[in-house]
Amino acid sequence: MKYVLSFLMTLVILMVATVDGTAKEQELIGAGATFPYPLYSKMFDVYSKEYGVKVNYKPSLGCGIRQLTNKTVDLADLMQL
Predict the structure, then answer these.
(1) Which of 28, 29, 54, 62 has the fewest CB neighbours in a 10 Å radius?
(2) What integer pLDDT is reported at residue 45 of this predicted model?
(3) 3-state secondary structure string, 19-69?
(4) 63 pLDDT band (50/70/90 cuts)?
(5) Which residues are within 8 A (CB) of 14 and not within 5 positions of it... i.e. 6 or more apart?
(6) Is 79 helix (H, G, I), strand (E, B) or coil?
(7) Which residue, among 78, 35, 26, has the nearest Cα to 54 in the 3D structure?
(8) From CA 52, how far away is CA 35, in angstroms rounded?
């Protein structure tokens, strides 16, 4: 259930990054949990093809929230909360 919630939160963040299908940025940088990375990777590939926004997600243990707090990434997997 946590992974589904995290997935949905990430999807919402991505949707906020677009306005009427037009991207504000051409690339988003993200970080977070390693477990859901295969799912995120496929999701971000589809998103990139649909909206033209590349998502560079770096799976890492325990630093996604810190990187988001430090504003070094645009999105993070918040499963660590």
Answers:
(1) 62
(2) 92
(3) ECCEECCCEEEEEECCCCHHHHHHHHHHHHHHHCCEEEEEECCCCHHHHHH
(4) confident
(5) 28, 47, 53, 55, 75
(6) helix
(7) 26
(8) 26
Q: Which residue has the tokens 């963040």?
A: 13
Q: Which two tokens stand for residue 40?
A: 């995120």
- For the CA atoms of 36, 42, 47, 49, the dihedral, rounded to the nearest 10 degrees, stands at 160
Q: CA Rg, the chain, in Å?
A: 12
Distance CA 3, CA 78 (A): 10
8 A C-beta contact, residue 74 and residue 30: yes
Dihedral sign computed on CA atoms, order 16, 22, 24, 30: positive
One-letter identity of residue 9: M
Residue 4: its H or E element: helix 2-16
